Amino acid sequence: MTTSTTDTILVVDDDAVIRAMIEEYFAAQGFAVLAAANAPAARALLVTSRPALVFLDVGLPGEDGLSLARHVREQFDIPIIMVSGASEPLDRIVGLEVGADDYVSKPFELRELLARVKSVLRRYRQGPPAAASDAPHRVRIPGFELDMQSRRVFGQDDSELTLTRMEFDLLQVFIEHPNRVLSRDQLLNLTQNRDWDPYDRSVDIRVARLRRKLEGGPRGPDLIRTVRGVGYMYDPGAR
Is the full-model pTM beyond 0.70? Predict the structure, then answer.
């Protein structure tokens, strides 16, 4: 059964067989599909077509997928699913660090890829949960102040701390659950509406990135504590 969506996805892969396979399958599911064999072609399509999602291979010739992912994240508000070979675990980790929303490994099942595409698009469009009418628009944490409406973070000197969408979502979840240990599974469900598996390091990578950014404020490194074997806890009274 096909979907009624008219979303356009951009497939960036130097393998013509994979491009054709994804294009045929997703077209049958109701998607419009654009394809590019390299980064320059993908950059041109991003400007002219503005796809709803980019499916991006790490191992592109010339400019690699990681560099292109950074460009997409800096220039467009478009979700990214990265794909890498099974022998490239480091690339998958770096892909998450540059802002990919999800990743899959080759070889992949087309039905799984479809489910991931739908899930990422749904999460992206839902955005953050609406704040309650009586919730404060400004929230203070040690060293920083968050504007929950504009989703911006400011230091004590009014300088702005740049966070990605996923990092802000993670910080918001921690703030909403102070002094409570949250498992990786809970964090993924609360921020991305998906389950964690033992080989998924995306939560750890994003917590580490968030910690590094919070270190610019006093007592920042102690705000998010690791609870060995369980998960993480936000401690607003950390010293």
Answer: no
